[in-house]
Amino acid sequence: MDTERIQHLLTEAQSSLSVFQKTQAETSRADALEKVTSLARALEKPKDAILKLSYTPSVCMALKVAIDLGVFPILAKATSPVSAEELATVKSADPLLVGQ
């Protein structure tokens, strides 16, 4: 790990975050996000990246199931927490599986 590079990225991230805090501009937010992401990637070890990639398919499949079950419109309209049982009844799904 190149500590000089990490220090440089940290300084850039702090500067970008400071600009965003002052301006609240979308371009400043995007720039700060880019700088923070670069810092996080510089700190990542290969094992971290591999673990992150290994969970990506699971997240994608969970999102597909949630879309197929119509979970997001229900949650968007809800004014209080919605249980897995309530979400499952909409599509006659198994509450245990919906909760997972």
From TrEMBL:
One of its GO terms (molecular function) is methyltransferase activity. Coiled coil: none annotated. Keywords: Methyltransferase, Transferase. InterPro entries: COMT_dimerisation (IPR012967), WH-like_DNA-bd_sf (IPR036388), WH_DNA-bd_sf (IPR036390). One of its GO terms (biological process) is methylation. Residues 58-90 form the O-methyltransferase dimerisation domain. It comes from the Eukaryota. This is O-methyltransferase. It comes from Aspergillus sclerotialis.
